[in-house]
Design goal:
heterodimer, A: mainly beta, 4-stranded antiparallel beta sheet, 0% helix, B: mainly beta, 6-stranded mixed beta sheet, 5-stranded antiparallel beta sheet, 11 strands, globular
Chain lengths: 115, 110
């Protein structure tokens, strides 16, 4: 299993440009998540999905959009990129939130710079 | 709102010594508390979790302690090794899937 994969690894955007960060998992996890991590900080939840066709906002959703058309894929869309969106973006997945805590598996991250 | 914070941003420990990383939380309704390890350039990796109705849980070389009276969480690493050098995050599961703290950087001195 490849686990959680993210593309691209690095990207530089100009202010106002748009892009999609790709995330895929091959563990048949129903839950998927997008986080951003600013330098020296913890991760903040942007959006999450409990299954195909269902998405929910996290702590910092403004400026982002997501879709979940399949169990495997959870792309994150940035519209009108701003310098404040310069960050490292992590995608994660877990089998189920449920009652017990189920470990989230993280991808390697996408480092995005907006100039 | 929920918030998770850490007492110390950096911690240096001699190889072989025990490490203790602390964390404060504010949401009494959180049902799970989790520790993650993040090595440079990588995504976070799960270490251990503890349910809110427990006060101690042990794993391999790690122990998590939960003190709900003072809303404090700690991660103890026994016989710290160079491979333990990383940033450690506490996180809590409450109203949202996970809320992460800012992290503590652990440096192991050989």
């Amino acid at each position: 299993n490849a686990g959680v994969t993210q593309t691209p690894k690095f990207r530089i955007l100009k202010i106002g440009q748009s892009m999609t960060l790709q995330c895929a998992q091959d563990m048949n996890h129903n839950y998927m998540y997008w986080y951003r991590q600013d330098p020296g900080m913890g991760l903040k939840l942007i959006y999450y999905s409990v299954g195909a066709g269902i998405t929910d906002k996290g702590e910092v959703p403004n400026g982002y959009n997501v879709s979940r058309s399949t169990t495997e894929d959870f792309p994150l869309r940035l519209e009108l990129a701003a310098p404040s969106q310069t960050s490292v973006y992590f995608c994660a997945s877990s089998y189920s939130a449920g009652v017990a805590y189920n470990e989230q598996f993280f991808g390697p991250g996408t480092r995005l710079t907006v100039l | 709102g929920e918030s998770v914070g850490l007492h110390l941003p950096t911690l240096s420990v001699q190889e072989g010594d025990n490490s203790i990383i602390n964390c404060a939380y504010s949401n009494s309704a959180s049902d799970y508390f989790i520790w993650y390890k993040q090595e440079s350039g990588k995504g976070p990796q799960f270490i251990i979790d503890i349910r809110s109705n427990m006060d101690k849980r042990q794993g391999q070389r790690v122990t998590v302690l939960l003190n709900k009276t003072v809303k404090h969480l700690s991660l103890q690493i026994a016989a710290t090794q160079p491979g333990d050098s990383a940033v450690y995050f506490c996180a809590e599961r409450g109203n949202t899937p996970l809320v992460f703290g800012k992290g503590t950087r652990l440096s192991v001195i050989a």
